[in-house]
Amino acid sequence: MVTSAEIGVIGGSGFYSLLDDAQEIELSTPYGPPSDVVTVGRIGSRSVAFIPRHGRDHRFPPHHIPYRANLWALRSLGVRQVLAPSAVGSLRAELGPGAIVVPDQLVDRTSGRPQTYYDEGGAVHVSFADPYCPSGRAVAVESARAAGWNTVDGGTLVVIEGPRFSTRAESRWFAGNGWTIVGMTGFPEAVLARELALCYTSLSLVTDLDAGVETGEGVTHDEVLEFFARNVTRMRTLVAEAVEALPSERGCPCGAALDGIKLPFELP
Questions:
Q1: Can you list the positions of beta strands (E) in 4-113?
Q2: Nearest-CA neighbor of 252 among 142, 132, 140?
Q3: Is the pTM of this model over 0.70?
Q4: Which DSSP symbol is given to 115?
Q5: Which of 33, 81, 227, 239 is deepest in the core (most CB within 10 A)?
Q6: Which pLDDT belongs to residue 213?
Q7: Active site residues
Protein backbone atom coordinates (compact mmCIF):
# COMPACT_ATOMS: atom_id res chain seq x y z
CA MET A 1 0.00 0.00 0.00
CA VAL A 2 1.44 3.37 -1.08
CA THR A 3 1.54 5.98 1.71
CA SER A 4 4.10 8.33 0.19
CA ALA A 5 4.80 9.66 -3.29
CA GLU A 6 7.66 11.01 -5.37
CA ILE A 7 5.56 12.80 -8.00
CA GLY A 8 2.50 15.02 -7.55
CA VAL A 9 -0.28 15.78 -10.01
CA ILE A 10 -2.61 18.74 -9.48
CA GLY A 11 -5.50 18.61 -11.92
CA GLY A 12 -9.20 18.15 -12.52
CA SER A 13 -11.59 15.51 -11.24
CA GLY A 14 -11.24 13.55 -14.49
CA PHE A 15 -7.79 12.41 -13.33
CA TYR A 16 -8.99 10.16 -10.50
CA SER A 17 -8.65 7.02 -12.63
CA LEU A 18 -5.03 7.94 -13.34
CA LEU A 19 -3.65 5.82 -10.49
CA ASP A 20 -3.39 2.11 -9.75
CA ASP A 21 -3.54 0.76 -6.17
CA ALA A 22 -5.09 4.08 -5.16
CA GLN A 23 -5.98 5.06 -1.63
CA GLU A 24 -7.22 8.30 -0.14
CA ILE A 25 -5.33 10.13 2.59
CA GLU A 26 -6.72 12.99 4.67
CA LEU A 27 -4.04 15.54 5.49
CA SER A 28 -3.87 18.72 7.52
CA THR A 29 -1.31 21.47 6.98
CA PRO A 30 -0.34 24.71 8.73
CA TYR A 31 -2.38 26.41 5.98
CA GLY A 32 -5.55 24.41 6.45
CA PRO A 33 -6.72 21.33 4.56
CA PRO A 34 -5.91 20.86 0.86
CA SER A 35 -8.62 21.12 -1.79
CA ASP A 36 -9.70 17.54 -1.05
CA VAL A 37 -8.37 14.25 0.21
CA VAL A 38 -5.13 13.29 -1.51
CA THR A 39 -5.22 10.14 -3.62
CA VAL A 40 -1.97 8.19 -3.56
CA GLY A 41 -1.15 5.30 -5.89
CA ARG A 42 1.07 4.21 -8.74
CA ILE A 43 1.64 4.84 -12.41
CA GLY A 44 3.87 2.00 -13.54
CA SER A 45 6.81 1.99 -11.16
CA ARG A 46 6.30 5.58 -9.98
CA SER A 47 4.50 6.55 -6.77
CA VAL A 48 2.12 9.46 -7.38
CA ALA A 49 -0.10 11.73 -5.28
CA PHE A 50 -3.10 13.43 -6.90
CA ILE A 51 -4.97 16.50 -5.66
CA PRO A 52 -8.07 17.82 -7.48
CA ARG A 53 -7.26 21.51 -7.74
CA HIS A 54 -10.85 22.75 -7.36
CA GLY A 55 -12.01 19.89 -5.12
CA ARG A 56 -13.78 16.83 -6.46
CA ASP A 57 -17.10 18.73 -6.55
CA HIS A 58 -15.42 21.82 -8.09
CA ARG A 59 -16.32 23.87 -5.03
CA PHE A 60 -13.25 26.14 -5.07
CA PRO A 61 -13.20 28.96 -7.63
CA PRO A 62 -9.70 29.92 -8.83
CA HIS A 63 -9.21 32.72 -6.30
CA HIS A 64 -10.24 30.53 -3.33
CA ILE A 65 -8.19 27.41 -4.06
CA PRO A 66 -6.03 26.56 -1.00
CA TYR A 67 -2.82 26.67 -3.04
CA ARG A 68 -0.48 26.77 -0.05
CA ALA A 69 -2.13 23.76 1.59
CA ASN A 70 -2.06 21.78 -1.66
CA LEU A 71 1.67 22.18 -2.29
CA TRP A 72 2.56 21.70 1.38
CA ALA A 73 0.52 18.48 1.51
CA LEU A 74 2.32 17.12 -1.54
CA ARG A 75 5.77 17.87 -0.12
CA SER A 76 4.80 16.29 3.21
CA LEU A 77 4.11 13.04 1.33
CA GLY A 78 7.60 13.08 -0.19
CA VAL A 79 6.70 14.68 -3.53
CA ARG A 80 9.53 16.56 -5.20
CA GLN A 81 8.23 16.85 -8.80
CA VAL A 82 4.82 18.26 -9.73
CA LEU A 83 2.89 18.09 -13.01
CA ALA A 84 0.03 20.58 -13.36
CA PRO A 85 -2.42 20.02 -16.24
CA SER A 86 -4.94 22.83 -16.75
CA ALA A 87 -7.30 24.44 -19.26
CA VAL A 88 -6.24 27.75 -20.86
CA GLY A 89 -7.36 30.21 -23.50
CA SER A 90 -5.20 31.05 -26.49
CA LEU A 91 -4.02 34.60 -27.17
CA ARG A 92 -2.85 33.70 -30.69
CA ALA A 93 -5.24 33.13 -33.57
CA GLU A 94 -3.05 30.38 -35.05
CA LEU A 95 -3.04 28.44 -31.77
CA GLY A 96 -6.47 26.89 -31.57
CA PRO A 97 -8.29 24.45 -29.28
CA GLY A 98 -6.59 21.11 -28.83
CA ALA A 99 -3.02 22.37 -28.66
CA ILE A 100 -0.76 21.61 -25.71
CA VAL A 101 1.42 24.49 -24.51
CA VAL A 102 4.30 23.83 -22.12
CA PRO A 103 5.05 27.40 -21.01
CA ASP A 104 8.47 28.58 -19.95
CA GLN A 105 7.38 31.97 -18.61
CA LEU A 106 4.59 33.36 -16.43
CA VAL A 107 2.97 36.75 -15.81
CA ASP A 108 0.95 37.29 -12.64
CA ARG A 109 -2.19 39.40 -13.03
CA THR A 110 -3.92 38.10 -9.89
CA SER A 111 -4.61 40.13 -6.76
CA GLY A 112 -5.10 39.24 -3.13
CA ARG A 113 -4.08 35.58 -3.31
CA PRO A 114 -1.67 34.39 -0.60
CA GLN A 115 1.45 33.70 -2.65
CA THR A 116 4.21 32.93 -0.18
CA TYR A 117 4.94 30.69 2.78
CA TYR A 118 7.42 33.21 4.12
CA ASP A 119 5.30 36.10 5.34
CA GLU A 120 6.61 35.94 8.92
CA GLY A 121 9.94 35.31 10.60
CA GLY A 122 12.18 37.14 8.16
CA ALA A 123 12.45 37.73 4.44
CA VAL A 124 13.01 34.76 2.15
CA HIS A 125 13.70 35.68 -1.49
CA VAL A 126 13.67 32.85 -4.03
CA SER A 127 14.78 33.11 -7.63
CA PHE A 128 11.84 32.99 -10.02
CA ALA A 129 13.38 34.19 -13.28
CA ASP A 130 12.54 30.83 -14.84
CA PRO A 131 9.32 29.67 -13.18
CA TYR A 132 9.20 26.11 -14.52
CA CYS A 133 11.42 23.07 -14.16
CA PRO A 134 13.61 22.64 -17.27
CA SER A 135 13.73 18.86 -16.88
CA GLY A 136 9.98 18.58 -16.42
CA ARG A 137 9.34 20.85 -19.38
CA ALA A 138 11.57 18.74 -21.65
CA VAL A 139 9.75 15.57 -20.60
CA ALA A 140 6.32 17.16 -21.11
CA VAL A 141 7.19 18.45 -24.59
CA GLU A 142 8.66 15.12 -25.70
CA SER A 143 5.71 13.15 -24.29
CA ALA A 144 3.13 15.40 -25.95
CA ARG A 145 4.85 15.31 -29.32
CA ALA A 146 5.24 11.52 -29.17
CA ALA A 147 1.51 11.24 -28.48
CA GLY A 148 0.66 13.34 -31.55
CA TRP A 149 -0.46 16.53 -29.85
CA ASN A 150 0.01 19.91 -31.54
CA THR A 151 2.70 20.91 -29.05
CA VAL A 152 4.14 24.35 -28.32
CA ASP A 153 7.50 24.30 -26.55
CA GLY A 154 7.63 27.51 -24.52
CA GLY A 155 5.45 30.56 -24.29
CA THR A 156 4.10 32.88 -21.63
CA LEU A 157 1.12 32.02 -19.45
CA VAL A 158 -0.63 35.08 -18.05
CA VAL A 159 -2.68 34.24 -14.95
CA ILE A 160 -5.73 36.38 -14.26
CA GLU A 161 -7.67 36.64 -11.03
CA GLY A 162 -10.96 35.26 -12.30
CA PRO A 163 -13.45 33.85 -11.89
CA ARG A 164 -14.61 36.06 -14.77
CA PHE A 165 -13.05 35.78 -18.21
CA SER A 166 -11.10 38.63 -19.83
CA THR A 167 -12.64 41.59 -21.58
CA ARG A 168 -11.72 41.98 -25.25
CA ALA A 169 -9.51 44.94 -24.36
CA GLU A 170 -7.65 42.93 -21.72
CA SER A 171 -7.23 40.02 -24.09
CA ARG A 172 -5.83 42.27 -26.83
CA TRP A 173 -3.49 43.86 -24.29
CA PHE A 174 -2.18 40.45 -23.22
CA ALA A 175 -1.68 39.41 -26.84
CA GLY A 176 -0.02 42.73 -27.67
CA ASN A 177 2.57 42.04 -24.99
CA GLY A 178 3.52 38.85 -26.80
CA TRP A 179 1.97 36.52 -24.23
CA THR A 180 0.71 33.14 -25.44
CA ILE A 181 -2.05 31.73 -23.22
CA VAL A 182 -4.28 32.88 -20.38
CA GLY A 183 -5.47 30.93 -17.35
CA MET A 184 -6.62 31.37 -13.75
CA THR A 185 -4.76 28.78 -11.65
CA GLY A 186 -1.08 28.71 -12.68
CA PHE A 187 -0.21 31.30 -10.04
CA PRO A 188 0.56 31.10 -7.15
CA GLU A 189 1.00 27.35 -7.71
CA ALA A 190 4.29 27.80 -9.53
CA VAL A 191 5.93 30.17 -7.03
CA LEU A 192 4.76 28.14 -4.02
CA ALA A 193 6.35 25.07 -5.57
CA ARG A 194 9.60 27.01 -5.97
CA GLU A 195 9.43 28.14 -2.33
CA LEU A 196 9.29 24.47 -1.35
CA ALA A 197 12.16 23.57 -3.74
CA LEU A 198 9.82 21.45 -5.86
CA CYS A 199 9.99 20.94 -9.61
CA TYR A 200 6.84 22.34 -11.25
CA THR A 201 5.72 21.79 -14.85
CA SER A 202 2.57 23.14 -16.49
CA LEU A 203 0.77 21.19 -19.23
CA SER A 204 -1.74 23.67 -20.62
CA LEU A 205 -4.54 22.43 -22.87
CA VAL A 206 -5.94 25.18 -25.10
CA THR A 207 -9.74 24.94 -24.91
CA ASP A 208 -10.71 28.19 -26.65
CA LEU A 209 -9.57 31.41 -28.29
CA ASP A 210 -9.68 34.26 -25.80
CA ALA A 211 -12.16 37.12 -26.19
CA GLY A 212 -9.86 39.51 -28.02
CA VAL A 213 -8.71 36.88 -30.51
CA GLU A 214 -12.05 35.75 -31.89
CA THR A 215 -15.24 37.43 -33.01
CA GLY A 216 -18.64 36.50 -31.57
CA GLU A 217 -19.78 36.35 -27.97
CA GLY A 218 -16.54 35.19 -26.37
CA VAL A 219 -15.86 32.04 -24.40
CA THR A 220 -18.31 30.64 -21.83
CA HIS A 221 -17.77 28.48 -18.76
CA ASP A 222 -19.78 25.60 -20.23
CA GLU A 223 -17.77 25.62 -23.46
CA VAL A 224 -14.48 25.34 -21.59
CA LEU A 225 -15.70 22.48 -19.40
CA GLU A 226 -17.22 20.65 -22.36
CA PHE A 227 -14.04 20.83 -24.43
CA PHE A 228 -11.84 19.73 -21.52
CA ALA A 229 -14.20 16.82 -20.77
CA ARG A 230 -13.96 15.63 -24.39
CA ASN A 231 -10.16 15.58 -24.10
CA VAL A 232 -9.69 14.43 -20.52
CA THR A 233 -8.97 10.79 -21.40
CA ARG A 234 -6.24 11.82 -23.81
CA MET A 235 -4.85 14.32 -21.28
CA ARG A 236 -4.85 11.64 -18.60
CA THR A 237 -2.79 9.39 -20.87
CA LEU A 238 -0.36 12.22 -21.57
CA VAL A 239 0.12 12.94 -17.86
CA ALA A 240 0.71 9.24 -17.15
CA GLU A 241 3.34 9.04 -19.89
CA ALA A 242 5.05 12.18 -18.59
CA VAL A 243 5.05 10.81 -15.04
CA GLU A 244 6.84 7.65 -16.12
CA ALA A 245 9.39 9.67 -18.13
CA LEU A 246 10.35 12.09 -15.33
CA PRO A 247 13.90 11.56 -14.03
CA SER A 248 14.23 9.41 -10.93
CA GLU A 249 16.94 11.73 -9.62
CA ARG A 250 16.72 15.47 -10.04
CA GLY A 251 19.58 17.23 -11.80
CA CYS A 252 17.74 20.53 -12.36
CA PRO A 253 18.20 23.74 -10.29
CA CYS A 254 14.79 23.45 -8.59
CA GLY A 255 15.97 21.37 -5.66
CA ALA A 256 18.64 23.95 -4.83
CA ALA A 257 16.21 26.90 -4.80
CA LEU A 258 16.58 27.37 -1.03
CA ASP A 259 20.28 26.63 -0.71
CA GLY A 260 22.06 29.17 1.49
CA ILE A 261 18.79 30.72 2.70
CA LYS A 262 17.89 30.70 6.38
CA LEU A 263 14.28 29.57 6.64
CA PRO A 264 12.00 30.70 9.50
CA PHE A 265 10.64 27.14 9.93
CA GLU A 266 11.41 23.58 8.95
CA LEU A 267 9.92 22.21 5.76
CA PRO A 268 8.15 18.85 5.78
A1: 7-11, 20-25, 38-43, 46-52, 81-90, 100-102, 105-109
A2: 132
A3: yes
A4: -
A5: 81
A6: 66
A7: 208, 210
